[in-house]
Design goal:
By secondary structure, the chain is an alpha/beta fold. The protein folds into three domains: about 55 residues, 434 Repressor (Amino-terminal Domain); about 120 residues, Response regulator (Rossmann fold), CATH 3.40.50; about 130 residues, Response regulator (Rossmann fold, 3-Layer(aba) Sandwich), CATH 3.40.50.2300. It is built from twelve helices and eleven strands. The protein is elongated and about 80 Å long. GO terms for molecular function: DNA-binding transcription factor activity; transcription cis-regulatory region binding.
């Protein structure tokens, strides 16, 4: 470390603060911090983790407690983002998956506390309002894709209200909102996305002087969406647009619309949510508003490692991915309407 300090032109104490990720806490200037990090790279310096842990009582590890996040092919992007951000801050991530088992959750929390992790991310696959384990409330913790029922802990969530506004504004601008139907309904206890997306849509539609024409209620599932939309069209419903609450619902809706002999987007425009790989498989490609899982994971780590963190809810914008399913308008990548 002495060589690093000398090469960077700083004191040994300053170099130590930077290498122990305490630069901000100790008010080290950005210039001095960068010089130290450049010296580390130049000298190929690697700190002794065991010695650092004994000296600082920090292990440079972060614990993640999740329900089904790691096993989800799409939601696992939150963990990818968190792990990358942790590595950039010289930390490692240790993940415990509970599969919704509350006793296993308590056991994993205790195990990670015994391993002296420096802080916790508490993550859920579905955007939920949650009761956080009591053992975490006195420790450094940030909630990821969920909010504390008591609103006393910092959280990072997708901007679902802004996404709803974006979906509605896309269809209003295209002149396809006069007979807009929402497809899908999330019956998961404590789930928030469905209601927040509808809230955002209602704001924009109200300003345009129109309302949602109706809701076709079904689980967020391809087959149920297909059967529900097919039945509605057979009964004489003539929508100008559908807002599908996720990409699986959009797939079922596409199948029903095309089986009815209608064309997308000439006869019916469609906007979806998720921005999953599935959105790119649909023809024409569906205009889908993406869940920013990777960015959310990274942002949660940054907040967790910030000594000045406050118990705010951070809303990460949800961008519209390019699509061809809205008549008269091609959705532009990275457009978003925030709630602020």
């Amino acid at each position: 470390m002495a060589d690093v300090a000398a090469s960077a032109g700083v004191s040994l104490t300053t170099a130590s603060y930077v290498l122990n990720d305490r630069a901000r806490e100790m008010r080290i200037s950005d210039d001095a911090e960068q010089r130290v990090r450049d010296a580390v790279t130049r000298l190929s310096y690697r700190p002794n983790r065991n010695a650092r842990s004994l000296r600082t009582s920090r292990t440079a590890t972060l614990g993640v407690i999740s329900d089904h996040v790691a096993s989800g092919s799409y939601s696992s992007l939150m963990l990818s983002g968190a792990a990358a951000a942790a590595r950039a801050r010289h930390h490692l991530v240790v993940i415990g998956e509970t599969e919704g088992d509350r006793q296993l959750e308590r056991d994993l929390v205790e195990e990670l506390i015994d391993r002296q992790v420096d802080g916790f991310l508490y993550a859920t696959r579905t955007l939920l309002e949650v009761d956080v384990p009591d053992a975490l409330r006195t420790l450094p913790v940030v909630l990821l894709n969920c909010v504390d029922r008591e609103r006393r802990l910092p959280s990072v969530v997708p901007d679902e209200v802004g996404a709803g506004r974006l979906a509605a504004s896309t269809l209003v601008t295209a002149g396809r909102a006069d007979a807009l139907f929402v497809v899908g309904e999330d019956a998961t206890p404590g789930a928030l996305a469905d209601g927040l997306r509808r809230q955002g849509m209602a704001q924009v539609l109200g300003q345009a002087g129109v309302e949602v024409a109706g809701t076709l209620r079904c689980r967020w599932d391809v087959r149920e969406a297909f059967a529900t939309v097919k039945g509605s069209l057979a009964a004489g419903t003539r929508p100008t647009s559908f807002v599908c609450l996720n990409d699986r619902v959009a797939m079922g809706t596409y199948q029903a619309v095309q089986e009815a002999g209608l064309w997308i987007p000439a006869d019916v425009s469609i906007v979806s949510f998720d921005g999953s790989e599935l959105a790119g498989w649909l023809q024409p490609r569906v205009s889908s508003i993406a869940l920013p899982f990777n960015d959310m994971g990274a942002r949660a780590v940054d907040i967790l490692l910030d000594p000045d963190r406050v118990p705010d809810v951070v809303h990460v914008p949800m961008p519209m991915l390019d699509g061809e399913s809205v008549a008269g308008s091609h959705a532009r990548r990275s457009r978003h309407l925030s709630t602020s």
